[in-house]
Amino acid sequence: MNSRTRIGIGLVSVGWMGRLHSRAYTEVARHYPELGIDVDLVSAADPVESGREHATTALGYAEAVADYREVLADPRIDAVSICSPNFLHREVALAAAAAGKHFWIEKPMGRTVDEAADIARGAVEAGVFTSVGFNYRQAPAVAHARELVRSGRLGRITNVRVALLADYSSDPDGARTWRFERAQAGSGVLGDLLAHGADLAQYVVGRIAEVSGVTETFIAERPVPAAGAASHFSRGDASAERAPVENEDYAAALARFDNGAIGVLETSRIAVGPHAEYRLEVYGTAGSLRWDFQRLNELQLAEGPGGYRTVYAAPGMGEFSRFQPGAGTSMGFDDLKTIEAQLFLRSIAEQRQLAPSVADGWSAAAILDAAEATAVSRTWQAVPVVDGPTTFDA
Protein backbone atom coordinates (compact mmCIF):
# COMPACT_ATOMS: atom_id res chain seq x y z
CA MET A 1 0.00 0.00 0.00
CA ASN A 2 1.33 3.43 -0.89
CA SER A 3 -0.67 5.39 1.69
CA ARG A 4 -1.70 4.58 5.19
CA THR A 5 -5.18 3.26 5.90
CA ARG A 6 -6.96 4.39 9.05
CA ILE A 7 -9.74 2.17 10.40
CA GLY A 8 -12.05 3.26 13.19
CA ILE A 9 -12.88 0.46 15.63
CA GLY A 10 -15.89 -0.07 17.85
CA LEU A 11 -16.36 -2.79 20.47
CA VAL A 12 -19.50 -4.47 21.73
CA SER A 13 -18.97 -5.95 25.21
CA VAL A 14 -15.85 -5.28 27.27
CA GLY A 15 -15.35 -8.75 28.72
CA TRP A 16 -12.24 -10.92 28.49
CA MET A 17 -12.62 -11.49 24.75
CA GLY A 18 -13.43 -7.86 24.03
CA ARG A 19 -10.28 -6.83 25.86
CA LEU A 20 -8.30 -9.37 23.88
CA HIS A 21 -9.67 -8.07 20.57
CA SER A 22 -8.74 -4.54 21.59
CA ARG A 23 -5.15 -5.47 22.44
CA ALA A 24 -4.87 -7.45 19.20
CA TYR A 25 -5.88 -4.44 17.11
CA THR A 26 -3.16 -2.30 18.63
CA GLU A 27 -0.54 -5.04 18.17
CA VAL A 28 -1.08 -5.25 14.41
CA ALA A 29 0.97 -2.12 13.66
CA ARG A 30 3.85 -3.49 15.74
CA HIS A 31 3.99 -6.89 14.07
CA TYR A 32 2.88 -5.87 10.56
CA PRO A 33 4.23 -2.33 10.11
CA GLU A 34 4.47 -2.61 6.32
CA LEU A 35 0.69 -2.90 6.00
CA GLY A 36 0.30 0.80 6.66
CA ILE A 37 -2.85 0.21 8.70
CA ASP A 38 -3.58 2.41 11.72
CA VAL A 39 -6.48 1.74 14.07
CA ASP A 40 -8.44 4.25 16.11
CA LEU A 41 -10.19 2.71 19.12
CA VAL A 42 -13.21 4.99 18.94
CA SER A 43 -15.97 3.66 21.17
CA ALA A 44 -16.82 0.63 23.29
CA ALA A 45 -20.27 -0.42 24.47
CA ASP A 46 -20.98 -2.25 27.71
CA PRO A 47 -23.99 -2.04 30.03
CA VAL A 48 -21.71 -2.41 33.07
CA GLU A 49 -20.01 0.76 34.29
CA SER A 50 -16.77 -0.99 35.24
CA GLY A 51 -16.48 -2.36 31.70
CA ARG A 52 -16.90 1.11 30.23
CA GLU A 53 -14.29 2.49 32.60
CA HIS A 54 -11.83 -0.24 31.64
CA ALA A 55 -12.39 0.51 27.95
CA THR A 56 -11.29 4.13 28.30
CA THR A 57 -8.68 3.92 31.05
CA ALA A 58 -6.95 0.65 30.18
CA LEU A 59 -7.74 -0.23 26.57
CA GLY A 60 -7.49 3.24 25.07
CA TYR A 61 -10.97 3.81 23.62
CA ALA A 62 -11.83 7.46 23.18
CA GLU A 63 -15.22 6.92 24.77
CA ALA A 64 -17.52 4.26 26.15
CA VAL A 65 -21.30 3.98 26.04
CA ALA A 66 -23.95 1.70 27.53
CA ASP A 67 -25.89 0.95 24.32
CA TYR A 68 -24.21 -0.83 21.40
CA ARG A 69 -26.51 1.00 18.99
CA GLU A 70 -24.56 4.18 19.67
CA VAL A 71 -21.40 2.42 18.50
CA LEU A 72 -23.05 1.25 15.28
CA ALA A 73 -24.44 4.74 14.60
CA ASP A 74 -21.05 6.43 15.02
CA PRO A 75 -19.77 7.61 11.60
CA ARG A 76 -16.17 7.47 12.83
CA ILE A 77 -16.39 3.69 13.17
CA ASP A 78 -15.66 1.43 10.19
CA ALA A 79 -15.54 -1.95 11.92
CA VAL A 80 -16.78 -3.52 15.15
CA SER A 81 -15.83 -6.46 17.32
CA ILE A 82 -18.85 -8.41 18.55
CA CYS A 83 -17.84 -10.08 21.82
CA SER A 84 -21.24 -10.17 23.49
CA PRO A 85 -22.94 -13.30 24.87
CA ASN A 86 -24.28 -15.72 22.24
CA PHE A 87 -27.92 -14.63 22.48
CA LEU A 88 -26.98 -11.16 21.21
CA HIS A 89 -24.83 -12.27 18.26
CA ARG A 90 -27.54 -12.33 15.62
CA GLU A 91 -29.11 -9.06 16.74
CA VAL A 92 -25.82 -7.15 16.88
CA ALA A 93 -24.33 -8.69 13.73
CA LEU A 94 -27.38 -7.93 11.58
CA ALA A 95 -27.51 -4.40 12.96
CA ALA A 96 -23.81 -3.95 12.22
CA ALA A 97 -24.27 -5.21 8.65
CA ALA A 98 -27.27 -2.91 8.15
CA ALA A 99 -25.14 0.00 9.37
CA GLY A 100 -22.42 -0.89 6.87
CA LYS A 101 -19.92 -1.87 9.55
CA HIS A 102 -17.45 -4.67 8.93
CA PHE A 103 -17.45 -7.04 11.89
CA TRP A 104 -15.30 -9.56 13.76
CA ILE A 105 -17.58 -11.91 15.70
CA GLU A 106 -16.76 -14.61 18.20
CA LYS A 107 -17.97 -18.18 17.88
CA PRO A 108 -20.45 -19.74 18.01
CA MET A 109 -21.71 -17.24 15.47
CA GLY A 110 -25.33 -17.93 16.45
CA ARG A 111 -27.25 -20.02 18.95
CA THR A 112 -28.55 -22.13 16.07
CA VAL A 113 -27.59 -22.89 12.49
CA ASP A 114 -30.48 -20.67 11.36
CA GLU A 115 -29.06 -17.72 13.27
CA ALA A 116 -25.63 -18.38 11.77
CA ALA A 117 -27.18 -18.49 8.30
CA ASP A 118 -29.01 -15.20 8.92
CA ILE A 119 -25.76 -13.54 9.97
CA ALA A 120 -23.84 -14.88 6.98
CA ARG A 121 -26.51 -13.85 4.49
CA GLY A 122 -26.91 -10.44 6.10
CA ALA A 123 -23.18 -9.73 5.84
CA VAL A 124 -23.04 -10.82 2.19
CA GLU A 125 -26.08 -8.73 1.29
CA ALA A 126 -24.57 -5.69 3.01
CA GLY A 127 -21.21 -6.18 1.31
CA VAL A 128 -19.23 -6.01 4.55
CA PHE A 129 -16.08 -7.95 5.34
CA THR A 130 -16.10 -10.25 8.33
CA SER A 131 -14.04 -12.41 10.64
CA VAL A 132 -15.07 -15.27 12.91
CA GLY A 133 -12.97 -16.07 16.00
CA PHE A 134 -11.42 -19.33 14.83
CA ASN A 135 -8.06 -18.43 16.33
CA TYR A 136 -6.63 -21.96 16.64
CA ARG A 137 -6.28 -22.24 12.86
CA GLN A 138 -3.80 -19.33 13.11
CA ALA A 139 -1.18 -21.32 15.06
CA PRO A 140 1.97 -21.66 12.90
CA ALA A 141 2.16 -25.39 13.69
CA VAL A 142 -1.39 -25.75 12.36
CA ALA A 143 -0.41 -23.82 9.22
CA HIS A 144 2.43 -26.32 8.75
CA ALA A 145 0.07 -29.24 9.37
CA ARG A 146 -2.27 -27.92 6.70
CA GLU A 147 0.61 -27.59 4.23
CA LEU A 148 1.73 -31.16 4.93
CA VAL A 149 -1.78 -32.50 4.38
CA ARG A 150 -2.74 -30.41 1.37
CA SER A 151 0.59 -31.03 -0.41
CA GLY A 152 0.06 -34.79 -0.20
CA ARG A 153 3.15 -35.36 1.92
CA LEU A 154 1.19 -37.60 4.31
CA GLY A 155 -0.30 -39.55 1.43
CA ARG A 156 -4.01 -40.22 1.23
CA ILE A 157 -5.66 -39.07 4.46
CA THR A 158 -7.41 -42.00 6.08
CA ASN A 159 -8.63 -40.76 9.45
CA VAL A 160 -8.75 -37.64 11.59
CA ARG A 161 -9.23 -37.14 15.34
CA VAL A 162 -10.17 -33.85 16.96
CA ALA A 163 -10.59 -33.70 20.73
CA LEU A 164 -11.29 -30.51 22.68
CA LEU A 165 -11.29 -31.44 26.34
CA ALA A 166 -11.55 -28.83 29.08
CA ASP A 167 -12.23 -28.70 32.80
CA TYR A 168 -13.78 -25.25 33.14
CA SER A 169 -17.16 -26.74 34.13
CA SER A 170 -15.94 -29.87 35.91
CA ASP A 171 -16.87 -28.52 39.36
CA PRO A 172 -20.53 -29.42 40.07
CA ASP A 173 -20.72 -26.22 42.12
CA GLY A 174 -19.66 -24.08 39.20
CA ALA A 175 -22.24 -21.34 38.74
CA ARG A 176 -25.12 -21.82 36.32
CA THR A 177 -24.29 -18.81 34.19
CA TRP A 178 -25.96 -17.92 30.89
CA ARG A 179 -23.75 -20.50 29.16
CA PHE A 180 -25.89 -23.31 30.60
CA GLU A 181 -29.19 -21.83 29.38
CA ARG A 182 -30.38 -22.82 25.92
CA ALA A 183 -32.22 -19.53 25.33
CA GLN A 184 -29.04 -17.54 25.89
CA ALA A 185 -26.22 -19.87 24.81
CA GLY A 186 -27.92 -22.27 22.40
CA SER A 187 -25.94 -25.50 22.57
CA GLY A 188 -23.39 -26.10 25.30
CA VAL A 189 -19.93 -27.47 24.62
CA LEU A 190 -20.83 -28.07 20.94
CA GLY A 191 -20.90 -24.35 20.20
CA ASP A 192 -18.35 -23.36 22.80
CA LEU A 193 -15.56 -25.76 21.85
CA LEU A 194 -16.48 -28.13 19.02
CA ALA A 195 -17.07 -25.15 16.73
CA HIS A 196 -13.28 -24.76 16.89
CA GLY A 197 -12.78 -28.47 16.31
CA ALA A 198 -15.01 -28.53 13.24
CA ASP A 199 -13.20 -25.53 11.77
CA LEU A 200 -9.76 -26.99 12.52
CA ALA A 201 -10.66 -30.27 10.86
CA GLN A 202 -12.00 -28.56 7.75
CA TYR A 203 -9.12 -26.06 7.59
CA VAL A 204 -6.47 -28.77 7.67
CA VAL A 205 -8.17 -31.71 5.92
CA GLY A 206 -11.19 -30.47 3.94
CA ARG A 207 -14.97 -30.22 4.12
CA ILE A 208 -16.95 -32.50 6.42
CA ALA A 209 -19.81 -33.99 4.44
CA GLU A 210 -21.72 -36.21 6.88
CA VAL A 211 -21.90 -36.76 10.64
CA SER A 212 -23.53 -38.88 13.33
CA GLY A 213 -23.41 -37.51 16.86
CA VAL A 214 -24.02 -38.23 20.54
CA THR A 215 -24.43 -35.76 23.41
CA GLU A 216 -24.89 -35.98 27.17
CA THR A 217 -25.40 -33.68 30.15
CA PHE A 218 -23.62 -35.22 33.12
CA ILE A 219 -24.07 -32.42 35.68
CA ALA A 220 -27.82 -31.89 35.60
CA GLU A 221 -28.07 -28.96 38.03
CA ARG A 222 -25.87 -26.09 39.14
CA PRO A 223 -26.16 -23.34 41.78
CA VAL A 224 -27.76 -20.10 40.67
CA PRO A 225 -24.94 -17.52 40.48
CA ALA A 226 -24.55 -14.29 42.35
CA ALA A 227 -25.46 -11.19 40.38
CA GLY A 228 -22.90 -10.38 37.72
CA ALA A 229 -21.29 -13.84 37.52
CA ALA A 230 -20.73 -14.50 33.82
CA SER A 231 -17.40 -16.26 33.37
CA HIS A 232 -16.76 -19.89 32.41
CA PHE A 233 -15.02 -20.16 35.75
CA SER A 234 -17.58 -18.44 38.01
CA ARG A 235 -18.23 -20.45 41.15
CA GLY A 236 -21.61 -20.69 42.78
CA ASP A 237 -22.49 -21.05 46.43
CA ALA A 238 -22.97 -24.76 47.11
CA SER A 239 -25.89 -23.91 49.40
CA ALA A 240 -27.62 -21.68 46.85
CA GLU A 241 -30.73 -22.61 44.90
CA ARG A 242 -29.93 -24.92 42.01
CA ALA A 243 -31.33 -24.79 38.50
CA PRO A 244 -31.24 -27.30 35.63
CA VAL A 245 -28.49 -27.31 33.00
CA GLU A 246 -30.22 -27.04 29.63
CA ASN A 247 -27.47 -27.98 27.20
CA GLU A 248 -24.80 -30.63 26.77
CA ASP A 249 -21.59 -31.13 28.79
CA TYR A 250 -20.17 -33.67 26.33
CA ALA A 251 -20.50 -34.33 22.62
CA ALA A 252 -18.90 -36.57 20.04
CA ALA A 253 -19.44 -37.21 16.35
CA LEU A 254 -18.30 -39.58 13.67
CA ALA A 255 -17.66 -37.74 10.43
CA ARG A 256 -17.01 -38.44 6.77
CA PHE A 257 -15.02 -35.91 4.77
CA ASP A 258 -15.54 -35.08 1.09
CA ASN A 259 -12.13 -36.61 0.36
CA GLY A 260 -13.10 -39.96 1.89
CA ALA A 261 -11.34 -39.57 5.24
CA ILE A 262 -13.13 -40.69 8.42
CA GLY A 263 -13.19 -38.40 11.43
CA VAL A 264 -13.87 -38.62 15.16
CA LEU A 265 -14.71 -35.31 16.86
CA GLU A 266 -15.03 -35.19 20.65
CA THR A 267 -15.45 -32.43 23.22
CA SER A 268 -16.11 -32.03 26.93
CA ARG A 269 -16.37 -29.09 29.32
CA ILE A 270 -16.37 -31.31 32.43
CA ALA A 271 -13.21 -33.37 31.89
CA VAL A 272 -11.18 -33.72 35.08
CA GLY A 273 -7.50 -33.37 34.21
CA PRO A 274 -7.24 -31.51 30.89
CA HIS A 275 -7.30 -27.73 31.22
CA ALA A 276 -7.39 -26.86 27.52
CA GLU A 277 -6.35 -30.01 25.70
CA TYR A 278 -7.35 -29.18 22.15
CA ARG A 279 -5.88 -31.87 19.94
CA LEU A 280 -5.77 -32.47 16.20
CA GLU A 281 -4.50 -35.75 14.79
CA VAL A 282 -4.31 -36.57 11.08
CA TYR A 283 -3.34 -39.99 9.74
CA GLY A 284 -2.38 -40.77 6.15
CA THR A 285 -0.94 -43.62 4.11
CA ALA A 286 2.53 -42.01 4.17
CA GLY A 287 2.61 -40.39 7.60
CA SER A 288 0.71 -38.73 10.41
CA LEU A 289 0.80 -35.66 12.64
CA ARG A 290 -0.41 -34.59 16.07
CA TRP A 291 -0.91 -31.11 17.53
CA ASP A 292 -2.09 -30.01 20.98
CA PHE A 293 -2.95 -26.40 21.80
CA GLN A 294 -1.37 -26.80 25.24
CA ARG A 295 1.93 -27.19 23.35
CA LEU A 296 0.92 -24.95 20.47
CA ASN A 297 4.45 -24.39 19.20
CA GLU A 298 5.11 -28.10 18.63
CA LEU A 299 3.98 -30.58 16.00
CA GLN A 300 4.51 -34.32 16.29
CA LEU A 301 5.29 -35.65 12.80
CA ALA A 302 5.78 -39.22 11.60
CA GLU A 303 6.88 -39.96 8.04
CA GLY A 304 7.55 -43.59 7.29
CA PRO A 305 8.26 -46.27 9.93
CA GLY A 306 10.57 -44.28 12.23
CA GLY A 307 7.92 -43.00 14.65
CA TYR A 308 7.26 -39.44 15.72
CA ARG A 309 9.69 -36.55 15.86
CA THR A 310 8.99 -33.12 17.32
CA VAL A 311 8.90 -30.26 14.83
CA TYR A 312 9.03 -26.85 16.49
CA ALA A 313 7.22 -23.85 15.04
CA ALA A 314 9.78 -21.75 13.21
CA PRO A 315 10.12 -19.01 10.61
CA GLY A 316 8.47 -20.15 7.40
CA MET A 317 5.50 -21.67 9.22
CA GLY A 318 2.47 -19.42 9.04
CA GLU A 319 3.07 -16.08 10.75
CA PHE A 320 5.68 -17.31 13.24
CA SER A 321 8.46 -14.94 12.11
CA ARG A 322 6.23 -11.96 12.86
CA PHE A 323 6.48 -12.79 16.56
CA GLN A 324 9.66 -14.77 17.23
CA PRO A 325 13.06 -15.05 15.53
CA GLY A 326 13.68 -18.78 15.78
CA ALA A 327 12.36 -22.20 16.71
CA GLY A 328 12.07 -22.94 20.41
CA THR A 329 10.95 -19.44 21.37
CA SER A 330 7.25 -19.70 22.03
CA MET A 331 4.25 -17.79 20.77
CA GLY A 332 1.10 -17.53 22.90
CA PHE A 333 -2.68 -17.38 22.72
CA ASP A 334 -2.82 -13.59 22.38
CA ASP A 335 -0.54 -13.76 19.35
CA LEU A 336 -3.09 -15.93 17.54
CA LYS A 337 -5.69 -13.19 18.03
CA THR A 338 -3.24 -10.63 16.65
CA ILE A 339 -2.92 -12.74 13.50
CA GLU A 340 -6.73 -12.83 13.35
CA ALA A 341 -6.90 -9.07 13.77
CA GLN A 342 -4.47 -8.39 10.91
CA LEU A 343 -6.42 -10.70 8.60
CA PHE A 344 -9.62 -8.83 9.44
CA LEU A 345 -8.02 -5.40 9.00
CA ARG A 346 -6.36 -6.48 5.74
CA SER A 347 -9.70 -7.79 4.47
CA ILE A 348 -11.12 -4.29 4.94
CA ALA A 349 -8.11 -2.41 3.59
CA GLU A 350 -7.57 -4.68 0.57
CA GLN A 351 -11.29 -5.29 -0.07
CA ARG A 352 -10.97 -9.08 -0.19
CA GLN A 353 -11.98 -11.72 2.33
CA LEU A 354 -8.83 -13.00 4.05
CA ALA A 355 -10.03 -13.71 7.59
CA PRO A 356 -12.19 -16.72 8.51
CA SER A 357 -15.53 -15.62 7.09
CA VAL A 358 -19.13 -15.76 8.24
CA ALA A 359 -19.53 -18.56 5.70
CA ASP A 360 -16.90 -20.51 7.67
CA GLY A 361 -18.90 -19.80 10.82
CA TRP A 362 -22.08 -21.01 9.13
CA SER A 363 -20.31 -24.16 7.88
CA ALA A 364 -19.15 -25.03 11.40
CA ALA A 365 -22.66 -24.37 12.73
CA ALA A 366 -24.12 -26.73 10.11
CA ILE A 367 -21.81 -29.51 11.33
CA LEU A 368 -22.78 -28.92 14.96
CA ASP A 369 -26.48 -28.78 14.10
CA ALA A 370 -26.26 -32.11 12.29
CA ALA A 371 -24.33 -33.66 15.19
CA GLU A 372 -26.93 -32.47 17.70
CA ALA A 373 -29.84 -33.64 15.55
CA THR A 374 -28.37 -37.09 15.00
CA ALA A 375 -27.71 -37.47 18.73
CA VAL A 376 -31.51 -37.66 18.99
CA SER A 377 -32.28 -39.59 15.80
CA ARG A 378 -29.26 -41.92 16.07
CA THR A 379 -28.74 -41.71 12.33
CA TRP A 380 -26.26 -40.20 9.87
CA GLN A 381 -27.03 -36.78 8.40
CA ALA A 382 -25.52 -34.96 5.45
CA VAL A 383 -23.99 -31.56 6.17
CA PRO A 384 -25.26 -29.04 3.61
CA VAL A 385 -22.86 -26.90 1.60
CA VAL A 386 -23.37 -23.31 2.74
CA ASP A 387 -23.72 -20.24 0.56
CA GLY A 388 -20.97 -17.66 0.46
CA PRO A 389 -17.16 -17.66 0.36
CA THR A 390 -15.62 -20.07 2.86
CA THR A 391 -11.90 -19.70 3.46
CA PHE A 392 -11.02 -23.14 4.85
CA ASP A 393 -10.38 -24.42 1.31
CA ALA A 394 -8.95 -21.18 -0.09
List keywords for this structure.
Rossmann fold, Dihydrodipicolinate Reductase, domain 2, 10 helices, globular
Explain how this protein is built.
Helix 4 (89-98) links the parallel strand 4 (79-82) and strand 5 (102-105). The longest helix is centred in the last third of the chain and has 20 residues, at 358-377. The protein has helices at residues 16-31, 49-59, 68-73, 89-98, 113-126, 140-150, 182-185, 189-204, 333-350, 358-377; strands at residues 5-12, 37-45, 63-65, 79-82, 102-105, 130-132, 157-166, 208-216, 221-223, 242-244, 250-257, 262-268, 276-284, 287-292, 298-303, 309-312, 381-382. The strands form 3 sheets. The protein has a 9-stranded mixed beta sheet. A 6-stranded parallel beta sheet has the order 3-2-1-4-5-6, sandwiched between helices. It has a two-stranded antiparallel sheet with strand order 9-10. The protein is of the alpha/beta class. Helix content is 32%, strand content 25%. Residues 8-134 form the Gfo/Idh/MocA-like oxidoreductase N-terminal domain. One of its GO terms (molecular function) is oxidoreductase activity. InterPro entries: Gfo/Idh/MocA-like_OxRdtase_N, Gfo/Idh/MocA_oxidrdct_glycsds, GFO_IDH_MocA-like_dom, NAD(P)-bd_dom_sf.
